[in-house]
Design a protein that fits this description.
Distance between the termini: 108 Å
CATH topology: lipopolysaccharide transport protein A fold
Order of helices and strands: HEEEEEEEEEEEE
Number of helices: 1
Protein name: LPS export ABC transporter periplasmic protein LptC
Number of domains: 1
Largest sheet: 12 strands, antiparallel
Number of strands: 12
Radius of gyration: 28 Å
CATH class: Mainly Beta
InterPro entries: LipoPS_assembly_LptC-rel, LPS_export_LptC, LptC
Structural class: mainly beta
Shape: elongated
Strand content: over 45%
Organism: Marilutibacter aestuarii
Helix content: 10-25%
GO molecular function: glycolipid transfer activity; lipopolysaccharide transmembrane transporter activity
Keywords: Cell inner membrane, Cell membrane, Membrane, Transmembrane, Transmembrane helix
Oligomer: single chain
Length: 188
């Protein structure tokens, strides 16, 4: 046998082996599923008004993107702005709450905000209040918010830093643990 015949047989064997390997990998085994379904709907650049059980406005949501999970019926939101209105007859103003991401429960009774969270409102006399944190859970129907992480609350003449915020959004009352406060005289 000459060397050309051996080279031809070696090349033919290599081609058959390569073809068989490609053919066997043509239908790879299915990857295990995680149970995550694609969103059943996606909203872009929208405004949504959620109503409570009595048909009153619970909150308004504006955002560039929302995705709803069909299994859990929860919503994931990119850079949301939530407006939580004051109840009728309340002396406090509405709360505007912004963050990098948001999550809304299937019933709409819990909102989880994460990343650069800012919540702004005005009290009965028009003085502003700002809450700044990285994590805030809001319960719009109960007009309550809470955060277990570091929080900064500012009002004219007052800056409070602490942890474990509990806020009555309707009464504009805020409690913090491990608080450090700084007062500034604003009367001039």
């Amino acid at each position: 046998m000459n060397w050309r015949t051996l080279a031809t047989l070696a090349l033919l064997g290599g081609a058959l082996l390569t073809g068989w390997m490609l053919w066997s990998q043509r239908h790879p085994a299915a990857a295990p599923t995680t149970g995550d379904s694609p969103p059943d709907y996606i909203l872009n650049d929208f405004e949504l008004i959620a109503l409570d059980a009595e048909g009153r406005e619970s909150f308004t949501l504006r955002a560039p993107r929302l995705e709803r999970d069909p299994d859990s019926r929860t919503m994931d939101i990119t850079t949301p702005l939530f407006v939580i209105p004051a109840r009728e007859g309340s002396q406090a103003g509405a709360w505007e709450v912004r963050s990098r991401t948001g999550w809304v429960s299937a019933e709409g009774d819990e909102i989880r905000l994460r990343g650069e969270v800012l919540a702004d409102s005005r009290d009965a006399s028009g003085r502003p209040t700002r809450i700044a944190t990285e994590q805030l859970d809001v319960f719009p129907e109960a007009k309550r918010a809470q955060s277990p992480v570091k929080v900064e609350v500012t009002r004219p003449g007052l800056t409070m830093n602490g942890h474990h915020l509990v806020a009555d959004l309707e009464g504009n009352r805020i409690t913090l643990k491990d608080t450090r406060s700084r007062y500034e005289n604003t009367a001039r």
